[in-house]
Specification:
The complex is a heterodimer. Chain A is mainly alpha-helical. Chain A has 8 helices and no strands. In chain A, helix 1 runs parallel beside helix 3 and helix 7 crosses helix 8. Chain A is globular, with a radius of gyration of 18 Å. Chain B folds into 2 domains: 43 residues; 64 residues. The chains are: A mainly alpha, B mainly alpha. The interface between A and B is large, with 53 and 49 residues.
């Protein structure tokens, strides 16, 4: 059987192909870019350590399953942290001035428009309940089938359809008809 | 009409996702590449090497027990702390599971502060 030691090149190629998407996906579920990078790093380490010997056609759903689960873990820890540390809640929030993106005068219009559209989309995604977030990023972003999404989320096909239907309705409502990436 | 709007939203969101992933900032790409190399390096190591620091286990266990004590203290009836769960968050057992996780050591760093706070009658 081919093990992790024998498929490093294939694993490297796979991780290169998904790492950027995983980062954008994680960031859409979390407000913090650094934390999103940590989630992707952790997902890559876990995936490479535990699942690299699986058939390659299973890699993508397995990897993104780890990503959404790690992002969800982070969301849960944030919720608990906010409850335990409620008296210090505002101290830990990043300074909006410090964290504002630097002005980039030469930035192409396309990139600027993408940035604004993505920020609106991310905010709308983060306002969704967790299961709807997960369904949306897997179904819409990654284009997974209902069955693949259900497998990644550990739920039924029917639940995926329900979560996705509600997610789309909520996003449509929140983003409005003029939102356009 | 809603179906058409849904399809348009899906197409737009997916295209945006792919463009953003393909046009990441150089610093992000660099960190992702470093993370990938680290993941590959760890995958090549024999199992059980280099991933754990046994000396930290007793300290982590002690911190976890202390965290449990703090949570029990601040959840005692009669305290003035408003501890109503936030919408969409978990039950106490789930909180404990998270707090006792090895990745919450940063949160536990502040335990001395919490314990001191509990001893301050005008606050606690």
């Amino acid at each position: 059987m081919e093990g992790p030691l024998n498929n490093t090149a294939a694993l490297d190629t796979f991780l290169r192909s998904v790492e950027g998407k995983a980062y954008v996906m994680a960031k859409s579920m979390m407000a913090d870019a650094d934390e999103a990078l940590d989630v992707v790093q952790d997902a890559m380490i876990r995936f490479a350590g535990r699942y690299a010997d699986r058939p390659e056609d299973q890699w993508r759903p397995l990897f993104f399953r780890i990503v959404i689960n790690r992002a969800r873990d982070w969301q849960r820890r944030q919720a608990v942290r906010n409850r335990v540390m409620f008296w210090r809640r505002y101290d830990d929030m990043p300074d909006p001035v410090e964290t504002a993106p630097a002005a980039r005068g030469a930035q192409p219009d396309r990139e600027l428009m993408d940035g604004e559209a993505m920020e609106a989309l991310e905010a709308a995604i983060r306002a969704l309940p967790a299961r709807q977030q997960q369904t949306f990023v897997l179904r819409c972003f990654e284009g997974m089938s209902v069955a693949e999404t259900a497998s990644a989320m550990g739920c039924s096909d029917g639940s995926v359809k329900t979560h996705y239907f509600r997610a789309l309705a909520a996003l449509r409502e929140r983003l409005g008809e003029h939102w356009d990436g | 009409m809603a179906d058409q709007d849904d399809r348009r939203l899906e197409q737009t969101a997916r295209a945006l996702y792919r463009r953003r992933a393909a046009a990441l900032e150089p610093e992000v790409r660099k960190r992702l590449a470093e993370a990938r190399r680290e993941a590959l390096a760890r995958a090549e190591r024999p199992a059980g090497r280099g991933l754990r620091l046994p000396v930290l286990v007793p300290a982590g266990a002690a911190a976890a027990v202390a965290a449990a004590a703090v949570i029990l203290l601040i959840r005692q009836p009669g305290t003035d702390i408003d501890y109503a769960p936030l919408a969409g968050t978990s039950e106490p057992a789930e909180d404990m599971e998270i707090l006792l996780g090895s990745e919450e050591l940063e949160l536990l760093d502040d335990l001395d502060f919490y314990l001191w706070l509990e001893d301050e009658p005008e606050i606690g």
